[in-house]
Amino acid sequence: MAQLFIPVKELKPYHVLLYVIGIFVILTPLTFLVKDDVINLGGVEFRFLGIDNALVPLKPVKNKDISNIVKVDTMNIEGPAVDTLVKNSFQTDGKMGAPSGGALTGESATKIEYAYSGEQALSRFFEKLEAAATGKKVRVLHYGDSQIEGDRMTSYIRQRLQAQFGGNGPGTIPAMNVYNTFTFKQRYSENFKRYTAFGGAKLKSKRYGSICTAARFTPEYDSSEMAGITSIKEAFIEIEPSASAYDRARKFNNVYMYYTSCTKPCKVKVYKGEELIHEDSLIQDGRYHSMALSFPSTPSKLRYEFSAAVSPTIIGFSLEGDYGVQVDNIGMRGSSGTFFGKIDHTTASKMYSEQNVEMVIMQFGGNSVPYLKDSSGVRNFAKNFRGQLATLKKLRPNVTVMVIGPSDMSTSSVNGMVSYKMIPYLVSEMKRVTIEVGGCYWDLFGAMGGLNSMPSWVDQGLAGRDYIHFTNKGASIASQLFFDALAAEYVRWKAGK
Q1: Which residue has better confidence, 105 or 137?
Q2: Average of pLDDT values for 276-293?
Q3: Which residues fall within 8 angstroms of residue 258, CB to CB, at 6 or more apart?
Q4: What is the pLDDT of residue 116?
Q5: 445-459 as b/e, with b when 16 or more CB fall inside 10 Å?
Q6: Are the C-beta atoms of residues 220 and 361 closer than 8 Å to each other?
Q7: Residue 141's closest CA among 344, 381, 349, 336?
Q8: In a 10 Å sphere around its CB, with 0-12 CB exposed, 13-18 middle and 19+ buried, how is residue 8 labelled?
Q9: Domain architecture of the chain: domains with CATH
């Protein structure tokens, strides 16, 4: 059989040379279009070597030495595991919440920054803390993005404040918790639906109270629709302490249920374990209310059973002691901190007042970092964030505003994982607007080591492989650094007083 023969042209050395030269001729102009090792073609970003890096040999980014930062002793602060209607007969003796105290140091590796008005606000807060230790109640709200969800960072700050100034319990928890948390346990019936002010399904009424989330077991109806809705629906929410929580958080003896938008009869039965301990009807005027139960000690599992044709909006529950400091974890995944325009101010203001909110911690910025491409984008974000802080001050005029800035975050580059380039300017602008509105600023980015420090936290198991979020251990270290700075301010205030 004849074979087909295809001649192959012999490659000469100069053919290879011409090919290489051709590639350089085509690609070299592209290096001048590259900015920060990225070229944008038709809206799609590609990694490409820029002219600066082409002329200068690349050097891998050296990880920051954070040994002095992360050697912080986070302490072993976890203690040992521990009418015809039925009306709750349990009572508290009013003594749960006593502080354990201990010496605080005026030394701190970092500092809180403020102007005169911020200093005055801190002084007012410290006065409230001292009152809490002797029988009053003070509340701190910790708003933040996914860096704090599931009670990370907040749990440590809460434990330290409660140990020093009194208090018990995790504070306000949502009616439907969707994040993993070690601080409490919760179950709810499948017909409950979660609504948030920062993503997902929204309440038409915007009545989220202070925590920007709520739940209902029927949809919201217009007044014209309600008359025809008569079939009774039943639903439940169960809450109980968690043995894995910090010891202060796992003990509480007062439970408050917050609700609003109750416009049709709604019956509630409360069970402590298997025992029916309370029956009630919610107030039917559509406004914000709370239902309180007290106990002589931490109750076991509580089950709230609801019966109604139209659901009220259940904002959440507060689990607390008799006095001291309550610290609420309000994690809002995906939020940039611009949510005050999305909530009903009347409901939020009433809840702030009823709960005696004296400090609000705002920990945001991280979700915007990947999208901030230039200085004008940073300034626009800072302007919007300033507006949120100003609105907060209107809702609670004498509140102390504390901003915890964004952490370091890394993105891939031709020479390794490096900080997003706009983070330092973002920190600077957030600090500026915070101080302008009379708030206080704590720089988490600087506290953890500054530029390109995140890879070192990842290498030591203190942050995840996403180079964004702290692990539980890393969150405890970051939280202690913040608490040390706050404690140092308190010690100086106390000495000056």
Answers
A1: 137
A2: 97
A3: 172, 209, 288, 289, 290, 314, 315, 316, 317, 318, 351
A4: 97
A5: bbbbbbebbbbbbbe
A6: no
A7: 349
A8: exposed
A9: 27-58 (no CATH), 67-496 (3.40.50.1110)
| Whole-number Å distance between alpha carbons of 345 and 334 | 22
Distance between CA atoms of 441 and 315, rounded to whole angstroms?
30
> pLDDT for 440-449, tens place per residue?
999 999 999 9
CA distance 429 to 423: 10
- Which of the two residues, 23 and 120, has the higher pLDDT score? 120
For tokens 């400090």, name the residue. 359
| pLDDT band, residue 204 (cuts 50/70/90) | very high
Rounded to an integer, the average pLDDT of 456-476 is 95
Angle subtended by helix axes 375-395 and 345-354, to nearest 10: 60
> In which band, very low, low, confident or very high, does the pLDDT at 223 lie, cut at 50, 70 and 90?
confident
Instruction: Determine the Cα angle at 400 with ends 397 and 405, to 5°.
Output: 125
Rounded CA-CA distance 430/379 in Å is 9
- Give the three-state DSSP class for 144: strand
Nearest to 441 by CA among 164, 121, 148: 121
**Mean pLDDT along residues 46-71:** 68
H or E stretch including 28? helix 13-31
Helix (H, G, I), strand (E, B) or coil at 224: helix
Rounded to whole angstroms, the Cα distance separating 392 from 434 reads 12
CB atoms within 10 A of CB 495: 8
Burial (CB count within 10 angstroms: exposed 0-12, middle 13-18, buried 19+), residue 52? exposed
**Percent of the chain as helix, strand, coil, to the nearest 5:** 30, 25, 45
Residue 74 in this model has a pLDDT that exceeds 90: no
What secondary structure does DSSP assign to 410-468, as a single string? EEEETTEEEE-TTHHHHHHHHHHHHHHTT-EEE-HHHHTTSTT-HHHHHHTTSB-TTSS
Per-residue pLDDT tens digits for 324-348: 999 999 999 989 899 999 999 999 9
pLDDT tens-digit map of 287-325: 999 999 999 999 999 999 999 999 999 999 999 999 999
What are the pLDDT digits (tens) for 377-400? 999 999 999 999 999 999 999 999
Please check whether residue 109 is in contact with residue 481, taking contact to mean a CB–CB distance below 8 angstroms. Answer: yes
How many Å apart are CA 160 and CA 147, to the nearest integer? 19
- Cβ atoms of residues 343 and 208 within 8 Å: yes
DSSP annotation of 246: -
- What does DSSP assign to residue 298? -
